[in-house]
Amino acid sequence: MTPTPLDVAAVVVTYNSSRHIAALLDSLPEAMGDLGYSVVVVDNASTDGTVDLLERRSDVTVVRSINDGYAAGINRAVRASPEASAILILNPDATLDPESVPQMFHTLRRPGVGVVAPRVRDQHGRLARTLRRRPTLGRVGGLSFTGLSLFAERIDDASRYVSEHEVDWATGAILLVDRRCFDELGGLDESFFLYSEETDFSLRARDLGWATVYTPKAGAMHIGGGSGESAATHTMLMLNRVRLYRRRAGDARAWLYFGLTVLVELRRAILGQRRSWWTLKALFRPSLRPPQLGASTAILPR
Question: What is the pTM of this model?
Answer without folding.
Answer: 0.94
